[in-house]
């Protein structure tokens, strides 16, 4: 992608509350399933603007969160909201290089950049004894894959169904403890603010910005039309050698 495209992308995404679907209930469920302790050390991998940090802090009221993202603009936004909290450390870092040890690695909608199996293998050494990885992954929910949805995910040919994700987890030497589909509320938490921003930018949008707005509108429309066919699956997984 050109510099103009990425400049336009950040015009659209600057200061949005989330960079992907999610809700506090997802964090609460995952931490309960993982039996997270109150003093847990957590890594928020690819944290974006830090939307999940408050729920993670609530889940581990005596714990600490290391939140990281490769995109400086998102880390700056997270730092503005949470940087004064001594229980939160923020850095511009690559999630591929996590060292730990962590009681939980939380990764909302970003593990696919590494690949599920490869990412889990990389992170094994960063888990403390008894630790868990929690990640949300694009997932087909039906065998019927509408053309618009298939086109949306064409650049991610590894996208599979729940059984396929479980096999990728197993291939990395982990077991799936539990899974949960992200809700409509979780998706609208991302798309509704995006809709508002698109409407505000649309009247003057040209060139790269117009393209970015078109793509974002098409993505939201595809999910809303075909939400029964695909979404995100949230998985809690643990290494087999714990």
Automatic annotation (TrEMBL):
One of its GO terms (molecular function) is methyltransferase activity. One of its GO terms (biological process) is methylation. It holds the Pfam family Methyltransf_25. Keywords: Methyltransferase, Transferase. The keyword Repeat does not apply. Residues 42-131 form the Methyltransferase domain. This is Methyltransferase domain-containing protein.
């Amino acid at each position: 992608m050109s510099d103009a495209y990425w400049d336009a992308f950040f015009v659209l995404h600057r200061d949005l509350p989330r960079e992907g679907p999610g809700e506090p209930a997802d964090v609460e469920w995952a931490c309960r399933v993982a039996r997270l302790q109150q003093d847990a050390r957590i890594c928020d991998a690819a944290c974006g603007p830090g939307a999940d940090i408050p729920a993670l802090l609530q889940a581990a009221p005596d714990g600490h969160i290391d939140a990281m993202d490769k995109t400086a603009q998102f880390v700056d936004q997270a730092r503005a909201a949470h940087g004064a909290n001594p229980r939160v450390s923020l850095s511009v870092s690559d999630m591929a290089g996590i060292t730990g040890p962590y009681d939980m690695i939380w990764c909302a909608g970003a593990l696919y950049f590494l690949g599920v199996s490869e990412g889990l293998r990389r992170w094994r050494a960063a888990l403390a004894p008894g630790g868990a990885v929690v990640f949300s992954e694009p997932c087909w929910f039906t065998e019927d894959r509408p053309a618009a949805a298939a086109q949306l995910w064409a650049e991610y040919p590894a996208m599979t169904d729940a059984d396929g994700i479980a096999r990728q987890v197993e291939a990395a030497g982990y077991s799936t403890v539990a899974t949960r589909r992200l809700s409509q509320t979780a998706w609208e938490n991302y798309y509704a603010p995006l809709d508002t921003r698109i409407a505000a930018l649309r009247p003057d949008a040209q060139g790269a910005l117009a393209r970015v707005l078109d793509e974002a509108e098409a993505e939201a429309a595809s999910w809303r039309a075909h939400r029964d066919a695909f979404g995100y699956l949230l998985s809690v997984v643990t290494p087999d050698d714990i």
